[in-house]
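Notes from the 1:1 (GR / supervisor)

We went over the backlog. Supervisor wanted to see one worked example end to end before approving the batch request, so GR pasted a single chain during the call. The sequence is below; no edits were made to it. Supervisor asked that the structure be written out right there so they could see what the output format looks like.
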Amino acid sequence: MAKEHPVSNQSTSRRRFLAQAGTGATLLAAGVALSGAPTTATAASPTPAGGFWPDGARLVISISMQFEAGGQPPKGADSPFPKADFPASMKSDPAANTWFAYGYREGVPRMLDLWDKHGVKVTSHMIGEAVKKNPKLAREIVMRGHEASGHGPRWSSQFQMSRGEEKAFLQAARDMVEEGSGQRPQGYNCNWLRRGPNTLSLLQEMGFLYHIDDLSRDEPFIEQVNGKDFVVVPYTLRNNDILLVEGRNYTPEQFREQITADFDQLYEEAGTRRRMMSISAHDRISGTPQMVRAWDQFLAYAKSKPGVAFMRKDDIARYALNSPLTLRESETI
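Structure output shown during the call:
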């Protein structure tokens, strides 16, 4: 009896692991079997006719612009300042509040001009109280062609709420954004992505199209919620200014290098499978002069590559929902 070749055993084990992890489905969706041979679902090419994205785009970039400034709690909001134990007589933290105010006074207007310069449309995750405080700015975001998305009426931990409490919370988030911006949110983002056991079910019941509180893939996918299709347009922490910069960690140049390296790898992979790059810009961080300069350089670089498209998350979700190539996860995390 012939002895089995060790490389063959390793290859078999790897194929089994990839299939269990869902990567096998990804490759099949791209028209390539794990062995490297085309599957029966495709023609002779690993790239399907028309490509993986609208108008034959190779790679889609999804930008989130968080509009939170003005909706932060009066005390205890995370900021570059050291934490302080304020007496009861101090109703708010003035220093931190000025840092947040930069977001609506300077940050968002500066970023809106940047997006216009490059013809880029983004999704703005809006806190209801921030919109209520600055409705003209919220309407300006929508007027310039960007998406208004839900981000809670205020900073709260939804995982601590009862189902009834969370439903009222989500309704308030939707209504405040719609009233202030003039656009009804189709997507949702929890505070620090921390949803509760009822969040997805409630979003589905309320008619939301998608959520972003998931880091598990570099492309949109569909999961089952209440027995129906619900789209996930994955978010990012690795390309997120609030973790990388915020006046404490990365420099703007390091941020640009980070997102450029991420872009280059995803652009390469996009030749054979659907790929989406997610980047996050917070109003009071990416809206600063030096960060807008870093963003400007990155956008110019990305746009110099053939087949790069920028899409709002609601447009991504609609396309994914109607595309036969979209991954369908068997688990809902």
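Supervisor's comment: DSSP finds eleven helices and ten strands in the chain.
Batch request approved.
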